[in-house]
Amino acid sequence: MTIFQRIIVGEIPADILHDDGHCIVFRDINPQAPIHLLIVPKKLIPRVGEAAPEDQTILGHLLLTAGKVAADLGINSTTEGFRLVINNGRAGGEAVPHLHVHLLAGRPLTWPPG
Ligand code: 5GP
Q: What pLDDT was estimated at residue 12?
């Protein structure tokens, strides 16, 4: 079981902002910005590079949920803004082998990222 599966089943506590049939959204334990959320599919897909054609709906759902949660937080505007990040593989910065989208906001985010 991944650490995120343990959060999904309630074995490990998390600050959960959204939970539906397909995904869960909770605050990152080590935030890199004032708002740092993780959008995690309930289905265990290890990483985006291993997603299958049948995962198309859930992959789209993750992005739609990001927009919805950002709207709920009042940051879904061109002036406020937010950043979505998916780390894939070791060189990509992936630490937890359970697909997740980072939502970062609340401070100016520079480009290029580190
Ligand atoms: P990755 O580096 O795999 O893209 O991101 C994994 C993220 O999960 C990290 O930002 C890390 O802080 C977060 N994380 C790891 N373990 C836990 C946990 O038990 N609870 C929460 N809320 N976040 C976690």
A: 97
**Rounded distance between C-alpha atoms, residue 48 and residue 52, angstroms:** 9
User: Could you give phi then psi for residue 89, rounded to 5 degrees?
Assistant: 80, 170
Structural domain including 8 reads 3-105
pLDDT at 114: 82
Is there an atom of ligand 1 within 6 Å of 2 CB? Answer: no
Structural domain contains residue 114: no
Rounded-to-integer distance, Cα 45 and Cα 51, Å? 6
Does any ligand 1 atom lie closer than 6 A to the CB of residue 78? Answer: no
pLDDT tens column, 4-48: 999 999 999 999 999 999 999 999 999 999 999 999 999 999 999
Specify whether 100 is catalytic: yes
Give the residue, by CA position, lying nearest to ligand 1 atom 24.
Answer: 29
With a 6 A CB cut-off, is 88 part of the ligand 1 pocket?
A: no
For the chain, the domain total comes to 1
Provide the CATH number for the domain around residue 79.
3.30.428.10
